[in-house]
Each structure stands twice: as C-alpha cells, then as structure tokens.
Specification:
Elements: H1 6-11, E1 17-19, H2 21-24, H3 26-35, E2 42-46, E3 55-61, E4 64-70, E5 76-80, E6 94-97, E7 101-102, E8 109-110, E9 116-118, E10 144-148, E11 151-155, H4 163-167, H5 171-179, E12 186-197, H6 201-207, H7 214-217, H8 219-232, H9 241-246, H10 253-259, E13 261-263, E14 269-273, H11 287-295, H12 297-305, E15 307-313, E16 317-320, E17 325-333, E18 336-346, H13 351-365, H14 372-385, E19 394-396, E20 405-406, E21 412-414, H15 420-434
Antiparallel strand pairs: 1-19, 2-11, 3-4, 3-6, 4-5, 7-8, 8-9, 10-11, 12-18, 13-14, 13-21, 14-15, 15-16, 16-17, 17-18, 20-21
Helix pairs in contact: 11-12
The structure holds FE2/S2 (inorganic) cluster and fe (ii) ion (FE2).
Length: about 450
Amino acid sequence: MAHYEDERLADLVKADRVHKNIYTDPEIFELEMERIWGRAWIYVGHDSQVKEPGDYFATNIGKQPVVMIRHKDGEVCVLFNRCGHKGAQVVGDGCGNARQLRCSYHGYVFDTDGALIHIPKEEAYDGTRFGKGRPEYNMQQVPRVDSYHGLVFASMSAKGPDLKSWLSGAAASIDNLVERSPEGRIEIAGGCFRYLHDSNWKMFVENLNDAMHPMVVHQSSSGTAKRVFDENLKEGDEAPFELEMLSPFTNNYEFFDKMGLTAWDYGHSVTGGKFSIHSGYSPIPGYMEALTNRYGEQRTREILAVNRHNTVIYPSFTLKGVITSIRVVKPVAVDKTVIESWVFRQVGAPEELFQRSITYCNLINSHANLVGPDDYEAYHRLQHGLQTQDGNEWVSQHRYLGLDEVDEDGTKHAVGTSDMVFRHQFQTWKNYMVNGGALQ
Ligand code: FES
Ligand SMILES: [Fe+2]
C-alpha cells in the first residue's frame, strides 16, 4: 500500500473537488475498508431480527463476515464469522435459529457467545496449545458493539467515540423514527430487497442527499406517472397514494432548495427537516389518534412535524423516518456495492401505515421499480464516465462554495442543491483515511 502515502491521499480531497481515483482505484477501496469501515460504527442489524436466544443474522462489516446473534443470557453479540479451528465461515448467509454454532467443515462447535464448547476427538490436542477455554480459539467478538433504539452498530476498532456521541445530530432522526410508533418501538418486517450496483459505494451515499438530480433523473418515472395520472384522473377523483409518492421527485429546484441540507460531525447529514418530498401524504385513518393516546396532542404534532427526507449516517446506514425504512450500504469491490432496503413496522400503528411503507419500497427502492433504476443508471454512468482519460481528473463540488452556515457546535446548513454535504463527507473521508478518524 505504499502507493498511497498519507500526503498523497490527503491531496485527493480539495476544498471544492475530489480526485476521480477515489471512486475507481482498487487500492483506495482496500484502504477505505481498513481505515473507514474498520474504524467507524457500522450498522449491523436491528435487534428485532434476533428476538429469541439463538436467533442469528449473518452479514458483513466491510468485507469481513460477521454474525449478529442473541446469546442465551439475552445479550446481542456480534461475532466474526470465522471458525477458531482453521478459519471456515461458520454461519452461512442469512438468518435462522441455532442452539449452538457447528462449523460445517470439521464439526467443531461454538456457543452463541462464540466460546468453543466441543471438539471431536478432543484428546488429540492433549499437550498442545489448542483447546476449549482458550479464548483465542473462540469465534471472536467484534471489538465494540452498541445499539441505539434497537439498531445495532459495531466498530472493528477498540478505540473511538461511543456510539451516541458519534451519531451526533443524526441521532434525532432515529429518535423521530421510533417516536412515530404509538408504542415507541419499531420492528423489522416484510423481508429485504438486496440489490447489487455496479458502482462505488460513495455514489449511493452521496446521491441520497443530492437534490440536483431528482427533477432530471426521475423525469422518465415520476414525470411520466404525473402525466398519465393527469390524463386519466377526472375531476373529483381521489389521487391514488402511488401518485403522492411519485410526483414530488420532479418538483422544481426551488422546492428542493427550500428543503435544505444539514450536516453533523463524522460525515452524517440530512435533506429536509420541516418539510420534504414526503410532506404531502394523506393521513392514515386512526394513526394520529393512536399517537395522541400515547403522547398527547402537542407532542404528537411535534413528532409529525419532523419531516426529514434521507438521513445519511456515514458510511453505512441511511434512513427515511416518514417511510419507516432504511437502506444499508455494503461495499463489495471498488465498483460493486450491495444496497439492502428494509422496512420497519411501527408497533401499535395501523396496518395501513406499514402497507404504505411496503408500497413505497416496491415503487421506489426495489430492483424492478420505477424510480430506483433511474438512479442505478446514473451511478453506472458515473463509474463508467470516470474511466475516461480526458485530462480532467477531478469531480466538482463547487456548488454554493463558501456559503455554508456553521453553528457554534459545528453543524452546517445550506440550501438543498448545495454541494455542502459532499464537501463535508469528503472532509470526514480524509479524517478517517489520513487522521485516524479524528474529528476535523
Ligand atoms: S475449520 Fe471449522 S471445524 Fe475445521
Ligand atoms: Fe434519485
């Protein structure tokens, strides 16, 4: 890795642009896995996926396989998914329940906290250093695991800020997501869309707070839907919910500018706040009443008044509070990224709210939908276009440069179509890659 000394890495990020190698060079990708995905808090899963002892969910942190599992004492553990014997991945992909974890290669068995508890023909190890009760041969626990409202994050680094401080202002998006449940509780439900993109992971992360693209990229889907509905809806007809979802993507620049952008420490950010493309949805019968019963009228109004669009918790996790869904970023290679889309049920809310979220994800986030493939095509063209040797080595981040508003605590604000969030994400990128994750 001598190819990229720290000074050269730092040089790839300027105040108003970044070098294209950041998206295309496999060496930089490997360094990101070590220095960003190996240092930051990375989203693993929600604890409702592992309700009972022995429930497990196999996933990755960066390129490393891990398994989230509920131990018999009730604790949620995140283990490296690697056998203590010769290193085979112990748990296959996906989820399930197991009393113990038995490696499929030679049959060595581990407890649900990773402890090695059975070795076939164990006496063969007499007089050696291998055996039960030696922690180095267990399935190892990931250095740090913590959760916020049931969302489990893990860090491959033993050092660094605790989860709550690291979440910074983005924690409020999670608070609001959970407060939207009349019981203050969310649960993963309805399965997962898993979608391989042939582009760099940062393109997806940037796009979620990119308000310059919807009215262009989504003209073919949102614009067409609007036109078809306009032509077919008669006066007095109730507009279908699908139209409420699809229409705002082609709102004008002024709308997206007013939505605004906010960014916090460690690269996190949000579009919207007081209103967003989700603001115009019709009320769900019974939902307001269920919330009012728990929180009272005033607080219910405050909860529903929060209308954040996409929150990005850099680098791995994005959420939409109003839609109660998340999208999880899983880098595979410099030009390959898996995006997972999950939906939460707001416990105690009418079923219709959950169905609305499912409809949104079918329409917008799935592989066979109307809107997501527009973005997919844009990422593909970015990745492909950056292969050119046309003499321009830089990716522009000049929009509204110098016009960010910065609060005393470092929170940044800008109009929705500013490049502020991208400049901010890459300052964070530089901090992880060059400064060991220190705050700027
Ligand atoms: S590698 Fe797992 S039991 Fe041998
Ligand atoms: Fe988009």
